[in-house]
Amino acid sequence: MQIAIVGAGTSGLFLNRLLSGRKGLHTTLFEQSEKAGTKLRASGGGKANLLNTDIRPEHYNHPEFLRRLLQQADAARVQRLWESFGLLTRSDDEGRVYPLSLCAQTAVDTLLPPGMDTDIRYGCTVRELQAENGKWHLNGEAESFDKVVLCSGSPAGMIPDKRKAYNAYLHSLSLETTPLSPSLVGFRIRRYPKRLNGCRAKAEVRLLQNQREIFRETGEITFKEDGLSGIVILNASAHYNRLENKEGAYLLLDFLYARPEWSLQEHLRLHRDLSGVLHPKLHALYLQQAFDPKNFRLDIEAPYDLAFAQVCHGGIPVEKVDDTLALRGHPGVHIAGELLDIDGVCGGYNLFFACACACVIADNLCKDAH
Ligand SMILES: Cc1cc2nc3c(=O)[nH]c(=O)nc-3n(C[C@H](O)[C@H](O)[C@H](O)COP(=O)(O)OP(=O)(O)OC[C@H]3O[C@@H](n4cnc5c(N)ncnc54)[C@H](O)[C@@H]3O)c2cc1C
Fold first, then answer.
1. Mean pLDDT, the chain, as a whole number?
2. Overall average pLDDT of the 46-73 stretch
3. What residues does each domain of the chain span?
């Protein structure tokens, strides 16, 4: 069986590794760039947070879809597979799993080990897919494939120029993505106090809209020139994206979350200012415009551009695929990874999703080959 894999990124390489050496199966990867595994290599600040030992459906935008996928490929299975490829892994106290080397390149290397017979066509952008007599042809070429797996990801983290060729072939399948927006990204803030630029502080972060709480998590925040970043903020952005109408969404930061008994009035009565409480940059702001450090409000203007996002919210609607990730109405085509309208929060959820999809598709292609 001849299998074309569109995109040599995380899901494409993982699938290729799973199918490699399987009797009766031959894979060919088509990759638009000159390198494989670019996003995997950049993931987790170059350390690649591969998965989380506590993968839960509610950490994704379509929990029901994840519930069904997890019955076929859960975190333990994906971690075992990484180990079976020769990648030693370690998990931290929060269940985040990384290569033991703490180097994402190690993960890429285990997907492309020396001696493995891999057919990757670099610099080959797939622009068209056509079915003829039960076989698939790419870019109008005579070469034919029995199956095609779409692993072409999303344009998150890419500068606008590089986004153009992404998923260029979707029109030939009459497929459209839902609107794409940046997720796992920082926020630009309205009337932002620029003097906070460079401050880092830990806080309990709440995302609210019309006083309704949408998200709450504690973590370190990085104050930038015109807005906020940090894992807790990126996670807030995933929940912000799920709001149909984003008008009036704001963040409330509690810098004293670890001291619930603390009282602003009592502290001021005893010490006159908050210099022993707040980061100096926050304190300087407090002296200029007093605020309650348990309820510091920041109004969201917009998420930062897609170029700064780790993932895209939006993609091919999940209803377009069945539980085997086969594309409905196009026999022989499967979809894996971020190309689907699935996004998870920070902590290894997105790389896991790409690899879990590859597992499910590999299971089904192996079944079909017999
Ligand atoms: C900076 C950054 C840090 C991240 N950190 C983490 C992390 O620590 N943990 C985590 O879980 N997730 C993380 N992510 C998200 C994670 O990297 C992605 O969700 C995951 O790599 C998606 O895998 P994929 O296979 O769907 O797509 P990709 O890995 O992006 O692969 C898609 C491939 O398809 C190719 N392609 C696209 N269109 C075409 C075409 N028409 N023809 C041929 N080739 C094409 C692309 O060039 C690319 O190589 C991070 C993302 C970024 C940007």
1. 96
2. 97
3. 2-181+309-369, 186-303
The CB of 9 under 6 Å from ligand 1? The reply is yes
Residues 6+ apart with CB under 8 A from 368: 1, 147
Q: Report CA(280)–ligand 1 centroid distance (Å).
A: 38
CB of 111 closer than 8 Å to CB of 16: yes
Mean pLDDT computed over 252-259: 97
Nearest CA to ligand 1 atom 37: 152
For residue 52, what are its two tokens?
Answer: 């989380």
Give the position, in ligand 1's atom list, of the atom nearest the Cα of 336.
Answer: 26
Strands of the 96-99 sheet, one edge to the other: 51-52, 96-99, 89-91
> Looking at residue 368, what is its pLDDT?
86
Best residue among 61, 310, 313 to mutate for probing ligand 1, ranked by most atoms within 8 Å of CB: 310
Q: What's the CATH number of domain 2-181+309-369, 3.40.1790.10, 2.40.128.90, 3.50.50.60, 3.30.2010.10?
A: 3.50.50.60
CA of 41 to the centre of ligand 1 (A): 9
CA of 39 to the centre of ligand 1 (A): 4
- What is the pLDDT at residue 369? 81
Q: Residue 244 burial (CB < 10 Å; 0-12/13-18/19+)? A: exposed
**Two structure tokens written together for 317:** 């609607």
DSSP letter at 295? S
